[in-house]
Amino acid sequence: MAAADRDGAGCTLGQWLARWLATKDALRPSTRQGYATHIRLYLIPHLGRIRLLKLTSRDVNGLLVALASRPSPTGRRLAPATVVRIHATLRTALNAAVRARLIPINPAHGAELPQPRRPHPVIWTAGRTARWQQAGERPAVAVWTEQQLAAFLASVVQDRLYAAWWLAALRGLRRGELAGLRWTDVDLNAAELTVAQQRVHADGQVVIGPPKSAASCRAVALDAETVRVLSRHRKRQEQLRATAGARWRDSEYVFTTADGAPLRPDYLTGRFRRLVAASGLPPVRLHDLRHGAATLALAAHTDLKVVQAMLGHASIVLTADTYVSVLPEVAHQAARETARLVLKAASALRRPLGG
Do 47 and 152 have their domain in common? Predict the structure, then answer.
């Protein structure tokens, strides 16, 4: 095939996808890895040999049906949300082909997409905890009550990474943000830290990249106890430095290995999982602490807009719809207050209510 055909309208979809991805130099590492995975595992095997100009919306819909009905390379059925992301990769690549005037329209537009259900966090109430203890039943996303969180923190107060668990649970930092936090990003005098970068896995390596989105580049206010937690953590790190001597790696990260090296994000996940198992508390994931941070902030009557800024969300709708669950006592308090308003109005009318 001539070079003009490989690079122009005569190329196959697979050739175009490879060319398109090679031009995306400014992508975040995790985004690039996601695109590359979608192209390698799903788009090229299903549609890669079709000529770019011959690709139709019927081909795209056929891909979506196949993805929804067949197991993934790991043997598990693909989640609807994953199918939507694969389609988004294809649609984005074909939009570039339209802009390059290689095809007149994007055949990925108007596709019949599945409707993924975003899991909403639920609280580990006494009933849910009992079902987990008796039958191992657990929600997809669950958060601890404030009493359960306090019990966990008390059980790990001597852990070397206690401050990381505290920041995740009370300030809602993501795993990559914890791993990427440097002391230059922390101002204990001003009681504030800045989320300026993250450490993430990409192509089998840990890379440093910008936060997840523009809104994720944020300043996070610190309360007095959090300042004390970080101050104690810094003193412990200085003690480790003195003990390690020449073996100490001066990485300037807040959370490090015992010899000062930066942490892998998956190390945080594994260590947290082991600590939760040892605590005997109902299980939560490290990312669920972020859900819990939003829940507890709202239980403390924090304005939703402030919670949005703390989490680094571009949209307040995402904050309200996904990251906010209702603590049982808050729901009961709302029920009491609602009834109190009606009963007060009835009393003013001298018209008692009740059966």
Answer: no
Residue 335 domain-assigned (yes or no): no
Phi, psi (degrees; rounded to nearest 5) at 226: -65, -40
Q: Scanning the structure block, which residue is given the tokens 């590492």?
A: 29
Query: Structure pTM?
Result: 0.78
Report the CATH number at residue 248.
1.10.443.10
Question: Nearest to residue 36, comparing CAs of 52, 46, 24?
Answer: 24
Residue 353 is assigned to a structural domain of this protein: no
Q: How confident is the model at residue 159 (pLDDT cuts 50, 70, 90)?
A: very high
Report the pLDDT averaged over residues 235-254.
Answer: 94
d(C-alpha 343, C-alpha 168), whole Å: 41
When divided into structural domains, the chain yields a total of 2
CA 208 to chain centre: 17
User: Which of 46-50, 139-143, 185-189 has the weakest average pLDDT?
Assistant: 139-143
Residue 99 CA, distance from chain mean position: 32
Distance from C-alpha of 181 to C-alpha of 177, rounded to nearest angstrom: 6
Which residue range(s) make up the domain with 292? 122-324
**How far is the C-alpha of 60 from the C-alpha of 347, rounded, in Å?**
64
Residue 4's pLDDT is 43
Q: How far apart are CA 54 and CA 69, in angstroms?
A: 25
